[in-house]
Each structure stands twice: as C-alpha cells, then as structure tokens.
C-alpha cells in the first residue's frame, strides 16, 4: 500500500508542476520540502537528474520518477535518503523552470519576428507588370501595355523574316536542282547525238557489213517483262562480240593473279625441299617478302575493283599474306605426304615383281632340266 501511495503521489506532482511551475509543498516527516533552497546552478541540476541540456520533457519526468523511487524515505529501499531526495526534487524544479523559460523565450522571439515581418515595407506592386515602368501604378500599367505592344510587333517581324528566309532558301534549292537537271539532260542529249553520229558514220564506211545478222530484225533474248528489251539486246550484242564491263574483267584478273601467286609460292617451297638449312631459310624469307609485296599490290587492285563494281555483294575482301604463306606450307606438306605414300607403293610393287620374276625363272630352269 505504501508503494502504491507513493506512486500516486508522484503522478499527482508530475501533472501539477509543469503547468504552473510553482513549488509543490510536500511534507516529509515534520519538514516542508518546498522550503529547501539549493544553491546549485542549472548544470548541477541536470547532472543530479543524470540528463543533458536540451533533453525533452518526457526524459526529465522519467528521470525524476526513477530517482524519487530510489531515494524517497518512505519507499523502504536500501538507497532511501531524504537529503538526496530533496536535491533531486529541487533539481527537478530547476530543470523544469529552465525548460519553460527557454520555451517562452523562443515563443517571444517568434512573435517579434512575426511583428517585424508584418511591419516590413512591402514592394509587391513592383513585382507586377514584369518589373516594367516607374511611377504610380496607373502610369506603370500604361507603360507596360506599350511594352507588350512593342514586344508583339518585334515577334511578328521576326516571324515574317524567318518565313521569308525559309522561302528564299527553298527557292534557291529548287533553282539549283533545276540547273543540275538541265545540265544532266543536255549532257545526255549530247552523248546520244554523238553516239548516233558515230553509228551513222560507221554504217556509211561499211563497218557493219560483216555482221551475220545484217538487215535482219533483232531477236528478243529475254521474255522477262521487268527488263528493258533494248538494254538487254545491247548488252547481249556486246557480250557476244567479246565486250565485257570493266569490273568483270578486273574480277577475272584478280582471281587469275591470286591463283598464279599461290602456285608460284608452292613451287618455290617445293624447290627448296627439306630440311630447312640456314641458307634455305634465308631464301625462303626472301621469297616470302616478294610474295607479301605482290599481295599488297593485289589488294590495291581489289580496292579499285570495289570502287567500280555496281553490286555490293560482288565486292571482294583483301587477301592476307600471312594466311596465304601458311596455306602454302600446308599444301607443300600435303604434297610431300602424297609423294612419300606413292614412293612406298612403288617399292612394294617392285618387290612383288621381283618375287614373281624369281619364281618364273626357277620354273623355267626346272622345265629345262626335265626336258634334258
């Protein structure tokens, strides 16, 4: 029961002291605890409550409650001490007073700031009209309207200027395109007239009299509706008479050149034979250097071919000299293996022939002896 009464007494004091901040008279024995006046300062009060400055009100209450239960003389605990309890109670009042004073000073500062803000001069009317003009509001409004008119006029003029520039640019592009097209037409017509004049001149000289189809209509070589008959017939005539496009001749030349180079390097390796002595290795290095130079020239020829070939899929890639040399080495090794295999087969055949010939000679000797 004593413990419950003490707890109830603490809760009543906890609810009353923070509100009015007046000393609460508490009788301990025959002594008024409220009459105790400590000379400790605020920092000592925080130390007595085992708190730090700036703590919350809940922390202060919890600390006071735990210390009161610990030092209250009526608690019956081993640590009960009336003097310590009075110090705790005094420190509790001092700390609560300090917290309330700080809170009140903060509120006063905020009120002063609010009063200062409300009394500060307002310049809101200078923020209107986009900051244009000076004088009274009516004068500034007129100046702002004139400013808007001038700005709109400038925007309209700028838009018209950009539109005219775009039109002139489009007109210039059309003119340049028309000029290029007219030049192209004139060149085409000039070429056609030149070709026609050359054909007529050749016909007058009799250059076409030896043709097998003279005086006969041209046959359609293709029934495909997607091919121009005239273009197809002209191409067919050129092909039949040995004329081929430049890129086809270049492609044929490149293929023949790489085949010739491959055969030459294999033949050179076969001439050197094996095993590779220092002298033979020096000769082989010289042959490889010459082969690399030939491959470089061939790759340059391939670049020229790729510039004139009309079909992208017909373009060719460069040849690698190192890969070609390795390929020649493998080809030479394969030839050597085939040669060794053929030599072994030849020896076996000769041995069989010798054996069969010896059997036949012994048979003839026996027959001669028998006849005698």
UniProtKB/TrEMBL annotation:
InterPro entries, per database record: DnaJ_C_subfamily_28, DnaJ_domain, DnaJ_homolog_subfam-C_membr-28, J_dom_sf
Pfam families the UniProt entry points to: DJC28_CD, DnaJ
Domain J: 44-117
Top-level taxonomic group: Eukaryota
TM regions (residue ranges): none
Database matches in SMART domains: DnaJ
Listed name of the protein: DnaJ heat shock protein family (Hsp40) member C28
Biological classification of the source: Eukaryota, Metazoa, Chordata, Craniata, Vertebrata
């Amino acid at each position: 029961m004593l413990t419950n009464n003490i707890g109830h007494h603490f809760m009543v004091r906890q609810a009353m002291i923070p509100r009015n901040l007046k000393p609460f008279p508490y009788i301990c024995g025959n002594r008024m605890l409220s009459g105790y006046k400590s000379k400790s300062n605020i920092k000592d009060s925080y130390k007595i409550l085992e708190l730090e400055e700036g703590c919350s009100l809940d922390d202060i209450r919890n600390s006071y409650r735990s210390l009161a239960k610990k030092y209250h003389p009526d608690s019956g605990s081993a640590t009960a001490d009336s003097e310590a309890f009075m110090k705790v109670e005094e420190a509790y009042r001092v700390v609560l007073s300090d917290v309330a004073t700080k809170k009140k000073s903060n509120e006063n500062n905020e009120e002063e700031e609010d009063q200062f803000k409300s009394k500060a001069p307002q310049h809101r009317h200078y923020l209107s009209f986009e900051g244009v003009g000076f004088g009274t509001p009516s004068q500034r409004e007129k100046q702002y309207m004139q400013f808007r008119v001038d700005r709109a006029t400038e925007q309209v003029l700028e838009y018209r200027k950009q539109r005219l520039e775009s039109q002139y640019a489009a007109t210039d592009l059309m003119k340049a395109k028309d000029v290029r097209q007219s030049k192209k037409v004139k060149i085409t017509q000039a070429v056609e007239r030149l070709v026609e004049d050359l054909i007529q001149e050749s016909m007058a000289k009799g250059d076409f009299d030896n043709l097998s189809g003279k005086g006969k209509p041209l046959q359609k070589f293709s029934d495909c509706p997607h091919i121009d008959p005239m273009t197809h017939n002209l191409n067919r005539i050129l092909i039949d008479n040995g004329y081929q496009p430049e890129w086809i001749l270049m492609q044929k030349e490149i293929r023949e050149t790489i085949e010739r180079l491959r055969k030459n390097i294999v033949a050179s390796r076969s001439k050197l034979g094996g095993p590779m002595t220092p002298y033979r290795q020096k000769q082989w290095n010289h042959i490889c250097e010459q082969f690399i130079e030939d491959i470089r020239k061939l790759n340059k020829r391939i670049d020229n071919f790729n510039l004139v070939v009309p079909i992208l899929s017909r373009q060719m890639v460069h040849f690698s000299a190192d890969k070609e040399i390795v390929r020649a080495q493998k080809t030479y090794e394969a030839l050597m293996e085939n040669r060794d295999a053929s030599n072994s087969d030849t020896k076996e055949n000769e041995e069989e022939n010798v054996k069969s010939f010896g059997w036949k000679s012994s048979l003839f000797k026996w027959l001669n002896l028998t006849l005698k």
